[in-house]
# Entry
Amino acid sequence: MRKLKVYLDTSVVSYLHQADAPEKMQNTLDLWQLFRNKVYDLYIRYCN
# Structure
C-alpha cells in the first residue's frame, strides 16, 4: 500500500513550540511523530 503524501504550509511548523496554544501544539507534535515513524511522506511548501 502506498503512503499518503502530506503537503504542509510552513505555518504548521510554528505550532511545534507554541506553548500559548497547547492543543494545536500537541496536535502538531502528534502529527510530527507520524512523520518520524514514516507513516506519511512529508512535503513542505516554502513561499516568500
